[in-house]
Amino acid sequence: MSTPHLYLSALAFSPVRSAISKQAMPKFRRLPIAVAGKQENWPTGLHCRGHTASVASVTFSPDSGQIVSGSEDKTIRVWDAHSGSQIGGPLEGHTDTVWSVAFSPDGGWIVSGSEDKTIRLWDAQTGSQIGTPFEGHTDTVGSVAFSPDSRWIVSGSNDNTIRLWDAHTGFQIGRSFEGHTDTVLSVAFSPDGRQIVSGSDDNTIRVWDAHTGFQIGRSFEGHTDTVWSVAFSPDGRQIVSGSDDNTIRVWDAHTGSQIGSPFEGHADSVHSVAFSPDGHTNGVVSVAFSPDGRWIVSGSDDKTIRVWDAHTGFQIGSPFEGHTDAVWSVAFSPDGSFSPDTSHSLCNDLKLYDGVDDWKNLVKVDFNGWIIGPEGRLLLWIQSYYHAFLYSPKNALVIPRGGVISV
User: Fold this and answer.
1) How confident is residue 185, by pLDDT bands cut at 50, 70 and 90?
2) Smallest Cα–Cα separation from 102: which of 134, 149, 51, 62?
3) In this predicted model, what pLDDT tens digit does every residue of 357-382 receive, in sequence order?
4) Burial 224-246 (b: 16+ CB within 10 A, else e)
5) Interatomic CA distance for residues 127 and 377, integer angstroms
6) How confident is the model at residue 406 (pLDDT cuts 50, 70, 90)?
7) Which of 69, 123, 116 is nearest to 351 (CA)?
8) Of 196, 250, 190, 189, which is closest to residue 223 (Cα–Cα)?
9) Fewer CB within 10 Å of terminal CB in the chain, N or C?
10) In this structure, how many other beta carbons lie within 10 angstroms of the beta carbon of residue 367?
11) C-alpha–C-alpha distance, residues 296 and 368, integer Å
């Protein structure tokens, strides 16, 4: 097997503080040593600087070419996802913190929710506000999201309600969705647009019929503290949540049953999730699924971002470190080219991470245990019992994070 040789040939140039350098260099003391020019750490990615206060929300455009961010400086800014440069001037109009931003699925609009109790719609190309603010909430609007067809906007608020809006007219559709007993911190549409999921300060997750506004089934209970972030899996069958109880949980979207054990590891609140589970040492604030549903990314008060295998619950690789304060929002790019694609923290900037090295072009380990080579060739099958060991740090010389190997 020639794989170790391929890694050893570049080992001398790996950053001094990287996991592979720390684990491998002591074992191969006769290797050449780079005496100058070595980095301390792997590059953490792109920085998008411009906001003058904490960044509260970030998301990618549908084509992965742009990033939009909302901030405590009351502005919204659009960034080039490849260069980190700001595109145009700030989008101004809100009179208080912008807590949530989202692109419409067709890429034409940006919606924002604010502490000024309003929702605003913006032209993504010109940055101009479209129409008048959407008014109706009686407290901070902390979360907004578009329906898959871009026709509707859902909002969650500190007034404990969820509201549905016509994106074209700005009028509220039907009655408010009521049931949560505390602040609604996160809302999201199901992939087919028929359901809405919400997470709340009342420690529960609820699923709603988008057309009637009625709750579907019972509340999802299990978290022992505030639920900061919720998201549907791409196939709509699962829901992932992140909480102040420092855990990430995956739920069956139809039955409300928790799937497996909580993902644990963050050392503080998990504020953002986007499909993957454990490792943070503080509350989990944001979560999100990858576009193909295989991974979950999470951001936490412990200043780290982590990527998880959505099927096994194992953390993939080491935490992404670099932020100097809580990570409040994470997202995958729609094309999957960036893994935890954007993160924002309370340190007024955004970072862009290329999390897993060129997944599409390297050899991969699929979930049935096959090692798949270029053009889908099956190279080797591994029994399911040994799958967990593929992610062990002891295998860092052979298989890096994500189960990706070079042969």
Assistant:
1) very high
2) 62
3) 433 344 455 656 666 665 566 666 66
4) eebbbbbbbbbebebbbbbbbbb
5) 47
6) very low
7) 69
8) 250
9) N
10) 13
11) 19
Q: In 10 A of CB 398, how many CB atoms?
A: 15
Amino acid at the residue 332: F
What secondary structure does DSSP assign to 177-199, as a single string? B---SS-EEEEEE-TTSSEEEEE
- Mean pLDDT over the full length of the chain: 77
Answer for the pair 182, 167: CB distance below 8 angstroms, yes or no.
Answer: no
Extract the tokens encoding 236.
Answer: 């709509």
Q: Which strands sit side by side in the sheet containing 227-232, from one edge to the other?
A: 227-232, 238-243, 247-252, 258-264
- The contacts of residue 397 (CB under 8 Å, 6+ apart) are 3, 4, 7, 8, 20, 23, 24
| Over residues 379-399, mean pLDDT | 50
- Sequence-ordered list of residues with C-beta below 8 angstroms from that of 27, at least 6 positions apart, any chain: none
Relative to beta strand 282-289, strand 268-273 is parallel
Alpha-carbon span 276 to 312, nearest angstrom: 9
Mapped onto helix, strand or coil, the DSSP state of residue 7 is helix
**93-116 pLDDT tens trace:** 999 999 999 999 999 999 999 999
Rounded Cα distance between 55 and 64, Å, is 19
Q: Round to whole Å and give the CA distance between 286 and 241.
A: 8
Produce one character per residue of 370-390: b if its CB has 16 or more CB atoms within 10 Å, e if not.
bbbeeeeeeeeeeeeeebeeb
Beta strands at 282-289 and 247-252: parallel, antiparallel or unpaired: unpaired
CA 141 to centroid of chain Cα atoms: 20
Q: State the Cα–Cα distance between residues 203 and 179, nearest whole angstrom.
A: 13
Q: How many CA atoms lie within 13 A of 97 on its CB side?
A: 16
